[in-house]
Amino acid sequence: MALAILPEGFSPPVILQAKGSRYDIISGHLRIKALRELNNKDVDAIIVDLGEIERTHVSFIENMQRNSLRCIEIADHMRYMKRNYAFTQKELAIKYD
How much is the pTM? Predict the structure, then answer.
């Protein structure tokens, strides 16, 4: 990813959530890692206040957009959402369509 950022000099903002005096990375872990490899300490960020379900959703969507998830990882996420947040199969289908 560092090589992808270098020529353009552009990286979409990461999504952060305040946690005390620090920030949790909700979306953009790999962008931050790549920028660190380039010794770049500046990163555009969006600060959000999300609930646990929304945080899980945003993080999962980013992973899906990278197209690097295997079918079993998608199924594991769906099972996690059903067990922990009582989503139905139909709700998940609508949410992740």
Answer: 0.69
